[in-house]
Structures are given as C-alpha cells and as structure tokens.
C-alpha cells in the first residue's frame, strides 16, 4: 500500500515533466532535448533568488513557471525556429532539432555546474515547510499531495484544451498534417511559441515540485529525467494524452517495485529497458495507433 | 617537438580513440541510420578487452581484435532486431541500449568491478600499434566514401526508396552500418582501456554519446574528415580553454549550440562549400574568357544521384504561405 502511494506521488512528478515534452512532440513535432535543463535551471534560478529573499511556495512556483516559459521561448526563437527555417526536409529537421536541443542544453547546465560545483541544491530557504502526514502505517508529505493535485489538474486541463478549444483543434491539425494545416490559415509559428511556452512552464513547475519532493537536485538531474520522460512518452504513444498519464504512473510503479526488491542500482535500468522493449514490440506505444493520429 | 609530444601524449591518445568513437556513430549516420549503438559497443568493447587481458592474460592486439569481433556481432544482432525502427525512435532505442550497458557494468559485481570499474589492464600496447590501427581503420572508411560504394551510400541516405528502385539493397546497407559501427566502437573502447589501464561505468554514460555526437556535428557528418576535425577540436579545446579561465564549460556549450543551429553540415561542410565556390568562380571566369561553356563536371553529377531541390520538401514555405493568407 505504501508502495502504491509512493508510486503515485513519484508518477505525478514524472507526469508534470513528461507533459511538457509530450505536448511539443505530439503537436509541433519538436522533441525538445533541452527540456531537462529548463527543468533544472528554473529551479536553480529560484534557489539563487531564495538566497536573498525568503518566499512562500506560490511565489517559488511562479518563479519556476516564468523562468521555464521564458527559457523555452528563447530556445524556440533562437534555435528551433532557425533550424526549421534552414532544414532541407522533415527527417533532417528532426535530427537537427534533437542535436540542437542537446547543444543548447549544455549552456544552462554549464552555468549551474559552475556555480554549484555540481553539488546538490535545494529550496530550503523558502517559507514553505515540508510536513509528513501519517495515517497508521501509511505516510505522505504535503508536497507529494500538492504534486499529485497539480499534475492531475494540469493534465486534465491540457487534455480538455486540446479536445475542446479552437486552438487545440489547430494544434491537433498541425500534428496530423502540418502543411495542410498551414494552408487552412493556421499560424504555425505563433502556435509553436505558445506550445513551447506552456511546455517550459510545466518544466519549471515540475522542477520546483520535484526539488521540494526530494529535498535537493543536482544540475545533472534534468538529464536523468529526460530519458525517463522519453520512456514514458514512448510507452504511452507519441501524442496520446492518456498515454503520457499511463506511462508516467506505470514507470513510477515499476521503479518503486524494482527499488523495493533489488539493491536499488537496477532502478535506472527500468526506464531504459522499457524504451528498448516497447520500441521493439510496439513502436507506436500502447495507446498509439499505427497510423499516427494525435490527440 | 619531442617535449611537446611527450607532454601531450594523453591528449594524442584521446584524439585517436575519440576519432574512432566518433566514426562509429558517423558511419551509420552517413547511411541515414540514426544509431548511437556505437557508444554502447565502446563500453562493451572496453570491458571485454579488459577482462580478456586480466583473466585470460591475452595480448593487447588479440584482446582488441576479439572485443571488436564481439561488438561487430552485437551490431549485427541490433541491426536485425531494430530493422523496423527509423529516425528518432531508432536513436532512442540505441541510446537505451547504451545506457543498459552502463547499468549492467555498475551491477556486474566482482566481474565488472561494480562502480569502481576494472583496474590494472597492463599490456605491451604501443603507440605505433595505436597509430597503425587508427590509420588502417580510417583509410578503410575513407575508401568507402569513394566511387560506387560512396555513391550508393549517399543514395541510401538521401532517398532510400529511390536507391531500392535502382537495385541497391537498402536493408543490407543498414545492417552493414550497424556491424561496422559496432566494430569501430569495440576497437575504440579496447584501445582506450589499453592505454588508460582503467575502465569505469562513468566513462560510458550519456556524456560519451553527447561527446561523440558533438564531434561529428561540429566537424561534419558527411565525411571522415569531419570526424577528424571534430575529434581534434573537442579533445584539444578543453585543454586550450583551461588557459582562458573558469568559464571554459560555458564557452564550450555556446560553441556546440552555435554549430548545431547554424552549421548543419559542420566545419567540413563549410570548407567544402568554400572550396566549391572558389572553384566555380575560377571556372566561370575562364568560361567567360573563352566565351564558351565547357559543360558540367561529370564528377559532381555522379556524386549526387538523388538531387533534392532544397525547397521541394522545405518546411519554411508553407509557413510563409499561411502568413501571407492570414
């Protein structure tokens, strides 16, 4: 029972993180490999600010969201848009974006590593205190509860936005056939900026919540989560909102199980093994259809 | 000169192993196969060679050869198993493979030395042997870029369907890419463990993939020359930048980002473009003097069997159309 509780709260962090990646990959076809460093750097900025002022949880979250969104917009403008402008075809654009993302990610990473000497940093200076709630044998922290609520609300909001609004329809249209969507008068560049901003905001939010959840993160934490998020999206199927939620909780459950039954150093192998296995057996993911249709 | 050589021996060794490592990812990339399995084979090869030396008391050359044979076999299996995957999916499946090798190395107990790795791989491996292996391998790869083979490889990359329709066995080329990549990774890993006498799980993680990719992207992905440029730059740059000061990591990051965004074909691509531009200008000047056209160079036509007009599948055009309408 405690294992399930832990898995649900861990899965919620994964969901928050993977949601942003899934959104940009499923709609505007950008697999953003700097997502992990946006996650890390927005938390890092909050950590730096907290050195001079003590702030409540909401303010710290807001910093994470704003920094994440701004970083994401800058990267879209300076890197991905430039790559798309120059790309010869879709396939080479995909690879250039992957590589560009890895390249761009080194900059915030280098800054944070330089400042922290690669040591862990946390958000203990804020006025928010992590408390543990107990009920018999079971326990859960208030951060974990907030994370679960935030993750589920944002996931539902994103899903509904994609399903019900005109912009959501436009996004799905881009995901299905970008060129026809453009011919129908959809402004791809503006929508791409909007999507990237939302994705970055999710990354910042996930960064702050994850850091409270764990106590501290290192500059390299973003890279680890990046691979996990990839496993999550692959498991569920690219572009599927149900898939990303399923993937996040399934990965967390598998990891908690492996953690509880082995020495612990095998935990990382869960996500890597999942990626390999799913791609081998069902490349479209569990919720993906053979013909790509994104929701 | 000799003093410089001795004091920079480690860097020279790193350049050579880095070059082979970069080539192990570049060779499949040149055929349009986005596989990072070479990095995993590097790790596997390093551990295999180290174990052969430690437990079987094998000589350096035999150990490297055997390790390379094993990683070529792994490449073959991966090539067959992952035949259905393409693009990003293939890239990530092979990244997952590389990371699994790392996790196995950490969890291998006494056999792989867990997180401390394997120590004391002492052999009679000499620098001249290292040069001979590297030059021989690079020469073979350079050879594959010439003539019929080279043109076929380019056809497989630029338009697999077209290549298949003119009788090129695309599937076989893809498998060959995996096997060569595996062998190259194995040789690089084996050589590295021979000159360092240590191998640790930390040496074969995600950073290894990023480093090899960085070398190729900045150097150029189309030719072995690009891998050489990249290997030299990214082995020697950190050493030079350490003189610049404490911000070397940042400068390094900015350089990589700029290259990734602005130079899709790397420094080698820029050099080739510059060379062609100069040649064309000279030819045009001569043509004007003679007031007659001396025709296209047959070499250039043959080297590009699947010419794709840059704007035909361009991504930017529809966007401007949409903007025009909006």
TrEMBL record, chain A:
Pfam families: BPD_transp_2. GO terms for biological process: amino acid transport. GO terms for cellular component: plasma membrane. It comes from the Bacteria. It is found in: Cell membrane. CDD domains: TM_PBP1_LivH_like (cd06582). It is a multi-pass membrane protein. The keyword Transmembrane applies. The keyword Transmembrane helix applies. InterPro entries: ABC_transp_permease (IPR001851), BCAA_transport_permease (IPR052157). This is Branched-chain amino acid ABC transporter permease. The chain crosses the membrane at residues 6-23, 56-75, 95-112, 143-162, 191-214, 226-254, 266-285. GO terms for molecular function: transmembrane transporter activity. Keywords: Amino-acid transport, Cell membrane, Membrane, Transmembrane, Transmembrane helix, Transport.
Automatic annotation (TrEMBL), chain B:
Residues 283-326 are annotated as: Disordered. The chain crosses the membrane at residues 34-54, 61-82, 88-106, 118-143, 175-195, 207-238, 250-272. Residues 290-299 have a biased composition (Acidic residues). It is found in: Cell membrane. InterPro entries: ABC_transp_permease, LivM-like. Pfam families: BPD_transp_2 (PF02653). Keywords: Cell membrane, Membrane, Transmembrane, Transmembrane helix. The keyword Cell membrane applies. This is Branched-chain amino acid ABC transporter permease. It comes from Nocardioides anomalus. The lineage of its organism: Bacteria, Bacillati, Actinomycetota, Actinomycetes, Propionibacteriales.
């Amino acid at each position: 029972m405690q294992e399930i509780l832990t898995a649900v709260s861990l899965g919620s962090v994964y969901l928050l993180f993977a949601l942003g990646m899934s959104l940009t990959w499923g709609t505007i076809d950008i697999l953003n490999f700097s997502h992990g460093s946006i996650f890390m750097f927005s938390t890092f900025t909050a950590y730096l600010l907290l050195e001079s002022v003590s702030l409540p949880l909401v303010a710290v979250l807001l910093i994470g969201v704003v920094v994440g969104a701004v970083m994401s917009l800058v990267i879209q403008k300076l890197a991905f848009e430039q790559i798309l402008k120059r790309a010869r075809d879709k396939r080479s654009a995909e690879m250039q974006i992957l590589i560009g993302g890895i390249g761009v990610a080194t900059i915030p990473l280098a800054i944070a590593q330089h400042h922290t000497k690669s040591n862990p940093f946390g958000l203990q200076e804020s006025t928010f205190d992590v408390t543990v709630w107990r009920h018999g044998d079971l326990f859960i922290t208030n951060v974990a509860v907030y994370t679960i609520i935030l993750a589920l609300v944002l996931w539902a909001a994103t899903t509904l936005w994609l399903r019900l609004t005109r912009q959501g329809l436009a996004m799905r249209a881009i995901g299905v056939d970008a060129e026809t969507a453009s011919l129908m008068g959809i402004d791809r560049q503006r929508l791409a900026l909007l999507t990237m901003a939302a994705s970055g905001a999710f990354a910042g939010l996930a960064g702050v919540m994850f850091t409270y959840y764990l106590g501290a993160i290192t500059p390299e934490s973003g890279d680890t989560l990046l691979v996990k998020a990839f496993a999550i999206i692959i498991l569920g199927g690219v572009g599927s909102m149900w898939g990303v939620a399923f993937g996040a909780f399934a990965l967390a459950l598998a990891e908690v199980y492996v953690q509880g039954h082995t020495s612990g150093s095998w935990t990382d192998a869960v996500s890597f093994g999942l990626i390999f296995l799913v791609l081998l057996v069902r490349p479209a993911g569990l919720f993906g259809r053979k013909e790509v249709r994104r929701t | 000169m000799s003093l410089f050589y001795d004091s920079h021996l480690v860097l020279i060794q790193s350049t050579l192993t880095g070059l082979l490592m970069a080539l192990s990812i570049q060779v499949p990339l040149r055929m349009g196969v986005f596989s990072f399995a070479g990095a995993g084979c590097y790790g596997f090869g390093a551990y295999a060679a180290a174990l052969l030396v430690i437990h079987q008391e094998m000589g350096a050359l035999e150990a490297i050869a055997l390790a390379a044979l094993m990683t070529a076999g792994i490449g073959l299996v991966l090539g067959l198993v992952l035949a259905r995957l393409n693009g990003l999916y293939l890239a990530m499946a092979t990244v997952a493979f590389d990371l699994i090798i790392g996790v196995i190395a950490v969890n291998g107990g006494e056999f792989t030395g867990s997180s401390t790795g394997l120590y004391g791989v002492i052999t009679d491996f000499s620098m001249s042997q290292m040069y001979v292996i590297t030059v021989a391998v690079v020469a073979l790869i350079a050879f594959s870029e010439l003539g019929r083979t080279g043109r076929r490889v380019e056809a497989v990359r630029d338009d697999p369907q077209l290549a298949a329709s003119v009788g090129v066995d695309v599937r076989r080329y893809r498998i060959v890419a995996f096997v060569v990549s595996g062998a190259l990774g194995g040789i690089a890993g084996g050589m590295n463990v021979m000159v360092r006498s240590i191998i640790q799980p930390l040496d074969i993680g995600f950073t290894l993939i990023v480093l090899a990719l960085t070398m190729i992207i900045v150097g150029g992905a189309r030719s072995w020359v690009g891998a050489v440029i990249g290997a030299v730059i990214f082995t020697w740059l950190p050493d030079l930048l350490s003189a610049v000061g404490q911000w070397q990591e940042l400068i390094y990051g900015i350089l990589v980002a700029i290259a990734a965004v602005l130079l899709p074909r790397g420094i080698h691509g820029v050099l080739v473009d510059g060379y062609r531009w100069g040649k064309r200008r000279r030819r045009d000047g001569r043509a004007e003097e003679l007031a007659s056209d001396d025709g296209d160079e047959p070499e250039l036509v043959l080297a590009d069997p699947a010419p794709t007009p840059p704007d035909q599948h361009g991504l930017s055009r529809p966007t401007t159309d949409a903007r025009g309408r909006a």
